[in-house]
Design goal:
The complex is a heterodimer of chains A (305) and B (697).
Chain A lengths: L2 H6 L17 E2 L13 E5 L6 E5 L4 E4 L15 E10 L2 E10 L14 E10 L2 E8 L11 H27 L6 E6 L2 H5 L8 E6 L3 E8 L2 E4 L4 E2 L11 E7 L2 E6 L4 E6 L6 E7 L12 E5 L10
Antiparallel strand pairs in A: 1-4, 2-3, 2-18, 3-4, 5-6, 6-7, 7-8, 9-10, 10-11, 11-12, 11-13, 14-15, 15-16, 16-17
Chain B lengths: L1 H18 L24 E5 H7 L5 H5 L5 E5 L5 E5 L8 E4 L2 E2 L21 E5 L14 E5 L11 E10 L6 E10 L3 E12 L3 E2 L2 E2 L5 E15 L2 E15 L8 E19 L2 E19 L2 E20 L4 E18 L19 H10 L11 E18 L2 E17 L21 E15 L4 E12 L3 H5 L1 E4 L4 E4 L7 E13 L4 E20 L17 E24 L2 E16 L12 E10 L2 E10 L15 E14 L2 E10 L23 E9 L1
Parallel strand pairs in B: 4-7, 24-27
Antiparallel strand pairs in B: 1-6, 2-3, 4-5, 6-7, 8-9, 8-33, 9-10, 10-13, 11-12, 13-14, 14-15, 15-16, 16-17, 17-18, 18-19, 19-20, 20-21, 21-22, 22-25, 23-24, 25-26, 26-27, 27-28, 28-29, 29-30, 30-31, 31-32, 32-33
Classes of the chains: A mainly beta (305), B mainly beta (697).
């Protein structure tokens, strides 16, 4: 089912166990179609002012996620760093957004309930899916969380650690003088299962704003095309940029420096900047996010509340 | 649309003007007679548009002229057909309105429509040899369209009306046109409106997707006879055109084009010893959007201001000269960014290294691939002057000497370019530098009447053409043509030596033969050639998997022959005119191989029959398969077209009423035009039957 229906029903959607979505839905400027890739639910967060907006690329509507303080995903007065978690379950992959604390570093400590604010994903009720969030307190041992929740936390930690391994691998592959700012690996789930990675594209955004594309062959990463820059991006910091999946052939790269989203995709041989969107084309003027996370409904399987 | 608004405004103005003491004047029945090219040998062949329209298979300028000797049409679907002349295409064929080259981008790329509907002009001239150098340097000569404003007289006094409608069974829609004028001895108002609507056509029983078109143009002129020697004509013109591009992309590609032109033409019969002085000031704005699936991926814009003056000088009864000088200023802007080309924008500057991405591709592949805007904004300032000196030695000899010179300053402005796709100085330090270039062309012509039945005309020309800004600076993808174009910043002037020979032999008053031979030798023939790697495999661009076309300047020779036989006979009340035509064109590269997209050999047979108010025509055209193909050029099968038309004209009082039926491609042949980039996906229109009516007052 398209996200459109779910987004329309965000207003007033309440579900048991998860924090319900906000009851205020704003409509963006619909005079000119935005035409971001359909089917994405994007969370933009400004870690300076703690403002947070959800944007549905299908309906092209945004929502102030901090407008209802009763919602678990309300970030008013908080600071964080949203990341996407591809949660593998027996029923498939459940895409989740975890709002980590902005100081959290998985290489120094494992994630506990106190190092994140919420865990958001699609919840289905009466055959309608909508975005909602679990509070971190649901994972607090003092509140007797379910075994499933504790197991999920363990899996999340494992995934975050694996991401760090990949980060280190890509960082090593970058040319001398370049540092790794952000990255995305296609078919990540296959990687996790140890599947063949010969044609898997690794997209890396360097500290100078260059996009490198690597492929893995013979156990090592090698550049598969010339690197390229994104318009308006000359520097990058991991807390001021993000890369999310747009399709099986492309990613969306967010840069706080340029306040743009870039579709980097491959419909020929090489990945390239296919399109770009100014954030203020579809989100309120004055909002200047520092981070982006994005998920889709696809392959959503059974999950624990 | 702009045209609609303009039409309403103009009708209101005209109504106001006519409301004051309207008085119907004399009858002005538009003549249908044309100057037949078979009647004489001349550097200029002139046609009335109405006559061309009757024979035309479509509504493009190429359709209108493709029955002429040596002329073909480079089609790109139903809406686009730029004429090719004696194997010359694009920038080698000038298309002028009056004398000013059209401010369109049709010479740049085949998908760009010519910026006028042929139906809206009054006359079309084909000019070659020395006479063409007045307008610039064009190996294929100049196609000069003349609007009402370019005629040195006011329309005939009184009210004239001319309206027509025609349907097309293949496209399900048709055309409508209206032309009207009201003139007194001193003032005249003139209005010409044309509308063409067509759904996607079919060929061989199958619809050709995205071959639809919608076009309308409004042309208005106000004339004032200041004194018997001096006439002023103000004009305005607006054109809107939307058309699909029937290419291979699964999503619809279409082009939205608009153009406005405003100007004034001053006609002086004589001044300071000069005769026939025509001075024109024109300002024009051209813009077109290229969309894919409704997304604005490309935008082209060109603004142009031109001031020109043409005049004649009679040095003696035997020696005359035509002069023309023109100042032109234009600015070309091009945008390529998916979904971001509804308007132009400046590139963002972050202080990063200029052209980092482009340099990476250059270092990696040897080709400076770019996925940004394909070229910088470019300003051109040009001064162009031409002279054609004619001397009559006797009644039977005329010698012509023509000179044309142009000085151009080209100023690229890279502010629009994305920072990362700039051309780095490490690759080309002069890429964005302003430069001033010049070109000089000469032509010598000899017209001779050997006897009452044999006339010849020979011209030998040395022509220099400045490379266009696109040929120099384009580096990027072109959506509508699905190709990556790689310009060449170091191109020299295109130089050629052109020999044209025309012979007219009148066997009898009824039978005549016209032979046209041409041989053009290019020192630096500039054309788009598929770029290949060291193993001769065509290179594809890494972003879109499209072929890479490289702008090259090479030695080449293009030659050909055109033969036209005309036979006229009267049998009782029946007037029969038979015409047989054969065209042969060949283009060879000095480095071996042929030039792509040359017209295949073709022949046409036509029989025109007039009796009383009836006029009937049957035309058969044979087009050979492509025989002289360039390397990596796909083969095109030959085809045959059979066309029939019948017209009945009824004249009563001050009016005439005409009804016609026209059948084109009656055998529904799947005909593919070898000149077209889209021949695989867009064959010519299949069988169509058109009905039309026309009223003239």
């Amino acid at each position: 089912m398209k996200l459109q229906a779910a987004a329309l029903l965000l207003t007033g959607a309440i579900f048991v166990g998860c924090g319900g979505s906000s009851n205020s839905t704003d409509t963006g400027d619909t005079n000119t179609p935005i035409d971001l890739p359909d089917g994405l639910t994007m969370v933009f967060f400004d870690n300076v002012n703690s403002t947070q907006y959800l944007y549905d690329t299908t309906t092209e509507q945004y929502e102030d996620m901090n407008s209802d303080s009763t919602q678990n995903y309300d970030m008013t007065g908080k600071h964080g760093n949203p990341v996407v978690w591809f949660h593998h379950t027996d029923a498939g992959v459940d895409q989740k957004i975890v709002m980590l604390s902005d100081y959290f570093d998985v290489t120094t400590t494992l994630l506990t309930y106190s190092e994140f604010h919420y865990l958001g994903h699609f919840h289905e009720e009466n055959n309608v899916k909508s975005f909602a969030a679990h509070s971190n307190e649901e994972f607090n041992p003092a509140n007797n969380p379910s075994e499933t929740k504790l197991a999920a936390l363990e899996t999340l930690n494992a995934d975050l650690l694996e991401q760090e391994e990949i980060r280190a691998e890509i960082a090593t592959a970058l040319p001398a003088g370049e540092t790794l700012c952000n990255f995305f690996v296609f078919d990540h789930e296959e990687h996790e299962e140890g599947a063949t990675q010969e044609s898997t594209a690794h997209i890396a955004l360097s500290g100078t704003g260059m996009v490198y594309v690597f492929s893995e062959a013979d156990g090592a990463l090698a550049q598969s095309q010339p690197p390229f820059a994104l318009e308006g991006v000359s520097s990058c910091h991991s807390s001021m940029s993000d890369i999310v999946k747009a399709s099986d052939y492309g990613v969306l790269i967010f840069s706080a420096q340029s306040q743009k989203i870039y579709l980097v995709d491959n419909h020929g041989i090489d990945f390239h900047q296919h399109s770009s969107w100014d954030i203020n084309r579809f989100l309120p003027a004055g909002f200047a996010p520092t981070a982006l996370a994005s998920i889709t409904e696809e392959s959503t399987g059974a999950h624990d509340h | 649309m702009t045209t609609n608004r303009s039409l309403i405004l103009f009708l209101m103005l005209e109504s106001l003007a006519l409301a004051d003491g309207i008085e119907l004047g004399t009858i002005n029945v538009v003549e249908s007679q044309e100057t037949q090219s078979s009647e004489e040998v001349a550097y200029t062949t002139s046609h009335k548009v109405e006559a061309l329209s009757k024979k035309s298979l479509g509504e493009t300028l190429g359709d209108y002229l493709s029955n002429e000797l040596g002329v073909d049409s480079a089609t790109y679907g139903a809406a686009v057909g730029r004429p090719t002349v004696r194997g010359m295409e694009g920038y080698r064929v000038g298309i002028a309105q009056g004398g000013i080259m059209l401010n369109d981008l049709s010479a740049m790329s085949q998908d760009h429509a010519v910026g006028l509907n042929a139906k809206v002009v009054e006359r079309i001239e084909l000019i070659k040899g020395p006479a063409s150098l007045l307008y610039g340097s064009y190996s294929g000569g100049v196609i000069r369209t003349l609007g009402e404003e370019h005629l040195a007289t006011l329309p005939k006094e009184g009210l004239s009306l001319d309206g027509s409608f025609a349907s097309n069974s293949n496209t399900g829609q048709g055309t409508g046109s209206f032309k009207g004028s009201y003139a007194s001895e001193l003032l005249a108002l003139y209005l010409n409106y044309f509308n063409h609507q067509a759904d996607s056509y079919s060929s061989g029983g199958e619809i050709v997707p995205n071959s639809d078109t919608s076009s309308e143009q409004l042309h208005g002129v106000v004339g004032w006879q200041v004194d018997p020697n001096f006439l002023v004509k103000f004009y305005a013109d607006t054109l809107d055109k939307e058309y699909g591009v029937p290419n291979t992309t699964p999503q619809r590609t279409d082009i939205l084009m608009e153009q406005q032109r405003y100007g004034v033409v001053l006609h002086n019969k004589s001044l300071w010893g000069l005769q026939n002085i025509i001075t024109e000031l024109q300002q024009s704005d051209y813009r077109h959007y290229e969309r894919e699936d409704g997304r604005y991926d490309g935008l082209f814009d060109q603004e142009q201001v031109s001031l020109s003056s043409k005049f004649d000088v009679d040095f003696s009864e035997e020696t005359q000269a035509n002069f023309r000088i023109e100042l032109i200023s234009n600015e070309l802007k091009v945008c390529h960014e998916h979904g971001e080309c509804e308007e132009f924008s400046k590139g963002i500057r972050t202080g990063a290294i200029d052209g980092a991405s482009l340099a990476n591709y250059y270092n990696s592949t040897g080709i400076p691939y770019s996925h940004g805007h394909p070229m910088p904004d470019t300003q051109e300032q040009k001064i162009q002057a031409g002279m054609n000196l004619k001397h009559y030695y006797t009644q039977s000899d005329e010698l012509s000497l023509a000179v044309s010179g142009v000085v151009r300053t080209l100023t690229p402005d890279s502010d629009n370019m994305q920072e990362t796709w700039l051309m780095p100085v490490s690759i080309d330090p002069d890429y964005y530098n302003e430069e001033t270039d010049s070109a000089l062309s000469l032509s010598l012509g000899w017209w001779h009447s050997w006897s009452e039945v044999l006339t010849s005309q020979v011209s030998l020309s040395y022509l220099e053409r400045l490379p266009s800004s696109q040929e120099l600076l384009w580096n990027g993808f072109h959506h509508a043509t699905e190709s990556y174009i790689l310009g060449n910043r170091d191109l020299d002037n295109e130089q050629s030596v052109n020999l044209d020979v025309d012979i007219l032999y009148k066997h009898t008053d009824a039978l005549s033969s016209n032979i046209s031979f041409f041989y053009y030798n290019f020192e630096n023939y500039i054309y788009q050639s598929p770029k290949v790697d060291s193993s001769n495999t065509p290179i594809i661009d890494p972003f879109h998997l499209s072929p890479v076309w490289e702008i090259r300047g090479v030695g080449a020779t293009i030659y050909g022959l055109g033969i036209e036989e005309n036979y006229a006979i009267e049998i009782g009340e029946h007037q029969l005119n038979m015409m047989a035509q054969f065209n042969l064109t060949k283009g060879e590269l000095d480095e071996s191989g042929y030039i792509p997209r040359m017209s295949p050999y073709n022949a046409t047979l036509s029989l025109d029959h007039t009796v009383g108010a009836w006029n009937n025509n049957i035309t058969y055209k044979w087009v050979d398969e492509s025989r002289n193909e360039a390397e990596n050029e796909t083969h095109t099968e030959g085809y045959q077209l059979l066309n029939l038309s019948s017209t009945y004209q009824y004249t009563f009082n001050k009016s005439s009423f005409e009804v016609w039926v026209k059948g084109t491609n009656l055998t529904d042949e799947v005909a593919r035009n070898h000149l077209s980039f889209l021949k695989e996906t867009a064959p010519l229109q299949g069988r169509a039957v058109s009905f039309g009516v026309r009223y003239q007052y």
